[in-house]
Amino acid sequence: MNFKQLEYFVAVAEAKSISKAARKLHVAQPPISRQIAMLEDELKVCLFLRTNKGVELTEAGRSLYQQSQHMFQNFRMMVDSVRDVDAGVRGLLKVGVVYSNTPVVLNYLKAYHKEYPQVELYIRVGAPGDLLDDLNRGDLHVLFLRTPTEGSSDFHEKILGEDPLELVMCPELDPAPDQDSIPIELLKDVPMCLLRSDDLWGYSSHLINECQRKGFTPNTVCQCYDTPMTMQLVQAGFGISYLPRSIVETHPGSNIYSKPLVGLPAKSYPTLLWSSNIYYANCVKRFISMFGYPT
């Protein structure tokens, strides 16, 4: 077994296709197939089941994939750590961010970059589930999510504060333009652009339940998979939404603003996550230490 075989194996496992893995690695298909066959022969196990749609991992394949991921994580951290030696604090800090945390994250990154300007920043904004997968694989060092992940033993968590949930809107759809807060009854006929009811944070479900307790169902004109699209629809005048208050800061100079709902003090919690199972390079440790954790 060698490093190249494991690299090919992991690529195929993630792509679920030899042809897709070949394109990603810029390698012809036959060498990949040959190396995987050699790996299976050496281990005396079947790693993949061939199907009409591609390939799927066997139980043995899943075991090898998980252990390979840990090996690659440790290898990447080893490389970063060696580069730190005698070079000051250098390296690469890979940060995952859910869109609504952008205003929170920028403040920390600005402070970190000022202190360690030689560290390159890699920032990925994406869906929570995808970002958590990347953190598990070691493709991200830290992740800024909303609300803790129910105490998973695989991660350290640091709650970074409270962010109230409020109605986000443009002036033309403000149901109470002369008031600083909005009674929930005034939402009865207002068009709403909400995150889907199955979104990870449950913002929409919380609002809908409260509206129904008051005897009506919100006039939902659009459901969105992600927050950026929701904000675009709000700005375009499709409706108002219900999101963390800080989201307004992602649209500076626009006419978007937020107001609280009367009697509904719901909150969201920006949260930092990082793995508890990985040895991090010095540049990553320095970033985590900004949040009061010894490294």
TrEMBL record:
GO MF assignments: DNA binding; DNA-binding transcription factor activity
User: Where do the HTH lysR-type domain residues begin and end?
Assistant: 1-58
Q: Which Pfam families match?
A: HTH_1, LysR_substrate
Is DNA-binding tagged as a keyword?
A: yes
Does the record carry Transcription regulation as a key word?
yes
SUPFAM superfamilies, alphabetized: Periplasmic binding protein-like II, Winged helix' DNA-binding domain
Instruction: Read off the Gene3D superfamilies from this record.
Output: 3.40.190.290, Winged helix-like DNA-binding domain superfamily/Winged helix DNA-binding domain
Q: Which UniProt keywords apply?
A: DNA-binding, Transcription, Transcription regulation
- Family per record: Belongs to the LysR transcriptional regulatory family.
Q: What is this protein called?
A: LysR family transcriptional regulator
